[in-house]
Amino acid sequence: MGYDYIIVGSGIAGLYTALLAKEQGSVLVITKGSIDDCNTKHAQGGIAAAIGRSDSPELHFQDTIAAGDGLCDEEAVRILVNEAPTRIADLVNLGVPFDTVNGEIALTMEAAHSVSRILHAGGDATGEHIEVTLSNQVRASKIQVLEDCLATEILVDKGTVKGLKALDCRTGSIEELECRFLILATGGAGQLFKFNTNSDIATGDGIALALKAGAEITDMEFFQFHPTALRLPGVTPFLISEAVRGEGGILRNVDGYHFVLDYTPQGDLAPRDVVTRSILYEMKKTGSDRAFIDVTHLPPTIITTRFPQIYRFCLDHGLDITKGLIPVAPAAHYMMGGIRTNSWGETNIAGLFAAGETACTGVHGANRLASNSMLEVVVFSKRILEKTGRQAKRAPTISQGTEVRSSLSQRRLSETVPAPSLSALQQLAWDKVGIIRDKGSLIEAADILAAWQKSLPQPTDRPSYELNNLVLSGRLVTEAALIREESRGAHFRSDFPQSFPQWQRHIVFTAK
Question: Which residues of 28-56 are buried (b: 16+ CB within 10 A; e: fewer)?
């Protein structure tokens, strides 16, 4: 049977898009886990929108462009900031319980924003509140959801999407599903790195599906590392939101010294990449595997009410953050590159769209402004449905400035590589393709990844598909980082520490 829309993924991008799509036709959501497995619920910071009295879309535009370090698509950013207030109203109408003060939505400050414009729900539980609100709406609707179902191949005929193949993870059977429009909302690829803040579903599935189908992949060298993930022995990295520093948290080294001003005059609220490298340098200087955030000078009631999730999580692990310092270290957080789309969410394949973290709309450029990611989802998902609602499928036009086009290179295949595994891949990416990069390390990683891709057997189940998808995503990140011989935004090369005007362009990969 055919559907008007098949949506792959059940995070905020997939669920929000599904709720919009049901007004325009039959909808199937497929998700490799359950409808509740997604990265969105981990999003603590909030969602940015210029709705405050001292704010404006123009200010939001300027802050986003500044963070993007010369690579934002200005048209896409204008759309993002201008449509933000209306999309917030949509979320309120859907029942998202944003926090209020005296009857008005409460707004807080985050790094690199010039005014307080971050909306939150349940303090630091914004992602979870939005995701639960949307999943409840989807469950109550007529939208069909296939859980434990992994998309394995996009079916394309004469440049137009026809449907996809999907693996039933419980039975091992492969099914073909037909659709008019296919929307990839599969999330990022944070599991590529040993230390990351993502859920275990973030394995680059959409990137691999799209590339193999003939879609363009861009900006993969720009992977955002969050400066402050909880660093406790035996505990999975847990995000300590940037908003903690926005409320007055102070970064200290292992000796208690407030070190950030030694690296940047912007201090604790400098852009994420600057804070991340500052922490990394300070950790090396002090011989420690961590730094600390100090909120002990703040009233305990602010901490417990503004950051209930963080407070409870730390308390569950024996740390009362109202009295003791929070041990932190950087971790991979957000993939700014992805499947290249235009401002309507269209890829270069007719009928194929991408939304959320797996898409690259051009709004983030080389560095995402905090809390713009959930906003990007609701703004551009809405536009996908506006586009599909008023036209038949045709080849879309995509233009995002000057570019360098490439396909994955034929690499020297060494015979002495370690056996491919998730843990070996994560260690390799963290060590060689992480926060600070150089040519030698990138070449070494690129050679190993190419050898792994060649040696991996045909996948048969969810873990083997995910490993294949991560290896391919890792190759794209590594080779893009090798091509870009400069430092810009979240991409930092110690052998090319400056940015250069001739590199104010995008690296675009295609399969051939």
Answer: bbbbbbebebbbbbbbbbbbbbbbbeebe
pLDDT recorded at residue 109: 84
DSSP 260: G
Question: Which distant-in-sequence residues (6+ apart) come within 8 Å of 218 by Cβ?
Answer: 337, 338, 340, 360, 400, 403, 506, 507, 508, 509
Query: Where among 317, 333, 349 does a domain terminate?
Result: 333
CATH number of the domain enclosing 302: 3.90.700.10
In this structure, are 328 and 423 located in the same domain?
Answer: no
Which residue's structure tokens are 């295949």? Answer: 413
**Structure confidence at residue 108 (pLDDT):** 87
CB of 324 closer than 8 Å to CB of 57: no
- Evaluated on CA atoms 447, 452, 453, 454, the torsion sign reads positive
Split into its structural domains, the chain has a count of 2
Residue 393 pLDDT grade (very low, low, confident, very high; cuts 50, 70, 90): low
Q: Does residue 155 sit within a domain? A: no
Place of tokens 């963290």: 430
Domain end among 333, 352, 372: 333
Among candidate residues 313, 303, 292, 326, the one with its CA nearest the CA of residue 247: 303
SS (H, E, C) 214-239: CCCEECCCCEEEEEEEECCCCCCCCE
The tokens of 323 are what? 């009295």
Q: Check if 180 is active-site.
A: no
Q: What is the mean pLDDT of residues 294-316?
A: 95
Residue 51 lies in a domain: no
Least confident of 68-77, 142-151, 391-400, 493-502: 391-400
Asked if 233 and 328 sit in the same domain, the reply is: yes
pLDDT value at 399 more than 70: no
**Under a CB-based contact definition with an 8 Å cutoff, are residues 247 and 305 in contact?**
no
What number of other Cβ atoms are within 10 A of residue 443's Cβ?
A: 16
Q: Are strands 2-8 and 174-184 parallel, antiparallel or unpaired?
A: parallel
Structural domain of 444: 403-509
Residue 147 covered by a domain: no
pLDDT value, residue 1: 66
pLDDT digits (tens, 9 = 90+) for 319-353: 999 999 999 999 999 999 999 999 999 999 999 99
Among 272, 306, 437, 475, which one carries the catalytic annotation? 272
In a domain, 189, yes or no: no
Asked whether the predicted pLDDT for residue 491 surpasses 90, the reply is yes
Residue 392 neighbours by CB under 8 Å, 6+ apart = none
Q: In what order do the strands lie in the sheet with 47-48?
A: 47-48, 118-119, 107-108
Q: Which two tokens stand for residue 471?
A: 């290896």
